[in-house]
């Protein structure tokens, strides 16, 4: 509870609870993310990590508890309102818009930041056209920034797996997030791509004022990029601390990491 | 055919022509097919008389200008429905409700339905002493469109929270409620709103009034002109063009992207900051807007609105046009709409006549038009089997089909073959958000 008074926190989740019928997926979890921090959420399958993500982004209604983001109460707000406040996310199972081009996917991410209305679009007013042109320019930059080259006009579904992951990040960044939620971003990546991804996170951190919440199974990534690691098991926080502390924590080793991780 | 083309290509004919074509500026490439189509359509009343009549192979005869008006108006509705179904992916089985609202707005605002009052505003071809509300049809078209859009919003608010099949069922309900309402609203506490099964008739005709007639030579009232059908034809074509242009513009706008994103993945669209309810309601409103305008126009053209016009069949029929043309494809829907509407208006009957005259023996004559819904059903089944993307697929879908999985950056990442289904295997604690 002492964390709540910490004014440097971008996100404060206070005793968030999510039940599915009799199953308690997230059990009174209290959790904070500092501004510009990189926090990882780890734990065995079914520990409630993604459920917590979905509660943060408004896809699930929490059973009880409160979520404050950047001074706003976002508990039970609809997803688009939370996104507009500055929470961008990717999905564990890639959820791009398959029949839209990479460029269009990013432009959709900008939706909340653009203003073009119906009448303006039909008549093609100079204001709407300018906005559209600038949005495309910005989308192009974002695609470059995320490591996508020469695929602007490709359909998302025809991109390679790694590029689809990159595009999801680009699309999330297009929402101009203050907090970026990445749900297993390196799932299915090969070691080389994983290294590239870690470099990307460092670059992101240097160039943009964004905090990151990461769900990740790859311990190299978790230990490599996080400021702080939180471990969940059965919906409860069993440990929290720096990567080094977590690696030594007995309960974590027992529940999740296994003996090998300590070596 | 292939060798002939190859031969031509070798001689540089087609090849050269193709290259020339590609050298043209993009807008020219994009719009010249549409402009050519428009030229052929707009001059139709002029060359119709020089086309052969009677016993044209298969189609028997070309549609009269009068039939063409109905065809164009139904095509307009199909283009409007395409916004809802094709862009936004909302299965609407009650589009006929919008047609009805539009038609009855026309009836209310431009006929002698309300004998209690006498209100004239820019009306043409109606005696100034006539009772009832007589507003200029041009204005009525706009009011009907706006009112229907409002109706779309009202229908949308409770229904659009539903997804997929449930939405279809509820829209079906609304499609039934509205015709039933107009059939029975001839005595609302003694007030005759819709004139029941008799419908509202006569409805005023469009026109420009005597002042514009005298100064510019514009027709004062269509119905009093000897070439009324032609005037209705060109006006209908104008409405269709406006509808198409608006739909193209919207498709390429911020709102259009949001619609398509919702169609592609509603959950992801919400998470990317698209307000789902509002955006879907807009799709309904825009679809309803054009449906209402088309309904109001055809009511004026038929000089009446009758409840028997608004059957469930119309909703299905319009949906067939969208599916046949290719969901989301403006040009596909336009062409499929024209073909199906023609079949419905007179095509099937004409084909039947031709078959009976030329193929079937006199002892086994068949009335083809009687089997119309069976025939549409077969068309849809065949389309689904052989060309599920529609006659002219939406550009993005066509690209997908042409390029298949061969995007330039689709080099296989061998290490990750098993990861093609992300979340499979030992990973994954949540999976996609289960909803609905």
Helix content of chain B: 55-70%
Number of strands of chain A: 10
| Secondary structural class of chain A | alpha/beta
User: How large, in whole angstroms, is the Cα Rg of chain A?
Assistant: 19 Å
- The coarse silhouette of chain A is globular
Query: What's the order of the H and E elements of chain A?
Result: EEEHEEHEHHHHEHEHEEHH
In percent, how much strand structure appears in the residues of chain B? under 5%
Which runs of chain B of at least 5 residues are low in confidence (pLDDT < 50)?
Answer: 402-436
User: Which outline of chain B best applies?
Assistant: globular
Strand content of chain A: 15-25%
The CATH topology of the largest domain in chain A is given as Rossmann fold
How much helix is in the residues of chain A? 25-40%
| Count of discrete structural domains of chain A | 2
Structural class of chain B: mainly alpha
Largest sheet of chain B: 3 strands, mixed
Pattern of helices and strands of chain B = HHHHHHEEEHHHHHHHHHHH
Strand order of the largest sheet of chain B: 1-3-2
Overall average pLDDT of chain B: 85
